[in-house]
Automatic annotation (TrEMBL):
Pfam family, one: Glyco_tran_28_C
Protein name: Unannotated protein
InterPro entries assigned to the protein according to its UniProt record, in alphabetical order: Glyco_trans_28_C
Any one Gene Ontology molecular-function term assigned to this protein's record: hexosyltransferase activity
Native organism: freshwater metagenome
Domain annotation Glycosyl transferase family 28 C-terminal: ranges: 237-344
Length: 464
């Protein structure tokens, strides 16, 4: 009997959180299913290294290959085409906000089970008002567990519509390399201390945080500082102070070589926390305040439980001083020892078991979904208290305003032909994504009928 196909779709988040969770789940699914990952994140090119499964890159709205409305239909039609090509039974989406194109699958293939992998720790942004509406459209909602769950007081924290699983991480203590082997793979000196620094650069405040963190590390004698990209700003100015031995290493996934490091400095995203702490790496978390993820609360939990250090992300002096604290062996020992108390990051296996139960269950029928959509739209507009009602009123006014004075047309870069690409080699695919010219990426071993359907979808969406 053929294995059932399960499609794992992810949005294009700020980091790799959505994609690595999907990859961890895909690895667990392979024993009984045929998982395929489809993602708007360019990091999808690394999927073969993590999960060893087929995948497709799909352009996000920000690529400007087509208009907004065209993109919603394009996303829906691409997923439906992949469902038909593979006879998929489940489509899972890992992302904060369900795109109309994801929900739209139900109107065309109502028999397919639709799953939302919905991370917690939401900030209280306007997207929370759509929770009722979107959640009711799902056949199953899964919440990846979070070490700091008790500090989550966001809009998803008290909802009873999801199944909570253990934390999901690609870190596996059984397969990760030991300290010496990891350092040899990375080309690091085995006799000197090493610190991993993973902080974003580009924005002025991000650059300042990087400089402050690296400055703090100067007090650590004979240190090797490992970065994943050159510490330079957009003008090519070096963000690193003098006196540091900096090594630029590009290795994926880093979760497999975390034992190489005596300490780490990184943001407090879901991935980082559930990799660094699971590996018992003494870490300074510098929360990123952008996006919907409440990294501040997650990092605060780790600090309050003495499993990591954290800072006020706007206080550069505090960042420098906290980075310097990592040089203390007693501090590192205390943090690592406290991490021994953490639960295992085996949530991907929990999700795989949920999918195994779901794969043969009937999906919600289309009539139920249409009725729920209508009822919850009314509730969404009028049942949220005066603040939310005012918000809805303002939305309505904005819609009317835009009817008479629409947004300026976004510059779209349409293609003159459809470029079908059927490769899984990371470097080649990465070049195509960075190039910016529209192309259609297909899973390996795609059928001729699937190729034809994809040409139809792309032609409708962005062909001149």
């Amino acid at each position: 009997m053929d294995k059932p196909t399960i499609i794992l779709a992810t949005s294009n988040g700020i980091g790799m959180g959505h994609l690595t969770r999907a990859s961890a789940i895909a690895s667990e699914l392979k024993s009984f299913a045929n998982p395929i990952i489809i993602s708007m994140a360019s990091g999808v090119v690394e999927v073969p290294k993590i999960a060893g499964v087929r995948f497709e890159y799909i352009p996000g709205r920000d690529r400007k290959w087509m208009g907004r409305h065209e993109w919603d239909a394009y996303l829906r039609d691409r997923l439906v085409a992949l469902i038909d090509e593979t006879n998929a039974k489940i489509v899972s989406f890992d992302g904060v906000v369900l795109y109309p194109g994801i929900i739209g699958i139900k109107s065309i293939r109502p028999e397919v089970n639709l799953v939302w992998v919905r991370r917690g720790f939401w900030q209280k942004t306007p997207t929370r008002y759509l929770l009722n509406l979107q959640s009711k459209m799902m056949d199953l909602i899964i919440t990846p567990g979070d070490f700091g769950q008790s500090y989550d007081h966001g809009p998803t924290a008290t909802r009873k519509d999801s199944v909570l699983v253990k934390p999901i991480s690609i870190f596996n203590p059984l397969t990760t390399l030991n300290k010496n082997d990891a350092r040899k793979v990375l080309g690091l000196d085995t006799d000197r201390p090493a610190v991993l620094v993973q902080l974003g650069i580009g924005e002025a405040d991000s650059n300042a945080k990087m400089t402050a963190a690296l400055t703090g590390l100067r007090s650590w004698p004979n240190l090797q500082v490992v970065l994943t990209k050159e510490p330079v700003d957009s003008n090519g100015n070096n963000l690193a102070p003098t006196g540091l031995d900096i090594k630029i290493i590009r290795y994926f996934p880093l979760a497999n070589v975390l034992n190489a490091f005596d300490a780490a400095i990184c943001a407090a995203g879901y991935n980082s926390v559930h990799e660094e702490l699971a590996a018992k790496v003494p870490t300074l978390f510098i929360p990123n305040i952008r996006g919907t993820d409440n990294q501040f609360a997650r990092a605060l939990w780790a600090a309050d439980n003495k499993m990591a250090l954290t800072v006020d992300q706007s206080n550069l002096i505090q960042i420098q001083e906290s980075a310097a604290r990592l040089a203390s062996e007693s501090t590192r020992i205390e943090l690592a020892n406290n991490c021994e108390k953490l639960e295992g990051v085996t949530g991907a296996k929990d999700v795989a078991n949920l999918f195994k139960d779901l794969v043969n269950k009937p999906a919600k029928n289309e009539e139920q979904i249409s009725l729920t959509l209508f009822k919850l739209k009314l509730q969404d507009l009028f049942g949220r208290g005066w603040r939310a009602s005012v918000y809805s009123l303002l939305q309505g006014i904005a819609l009317v305003y835009r009817w008479f004075k629409p947004h300026k047309e976004v510059d779209i870069n349409p293609a003159s032909n459809i470029n079908l690409v059927q490769i899984d080699e990371p470097d080649e695919l990465r070049k195509l994504i960075k190039n910016g010219n529209p192309f259609e990426h297909l899973i390996i071993d795609a059928s001729d009928s699937y190729k034809s359907r994809r040409i139809e979808i792309a032609s409708k969406a962005y062909l001149k």
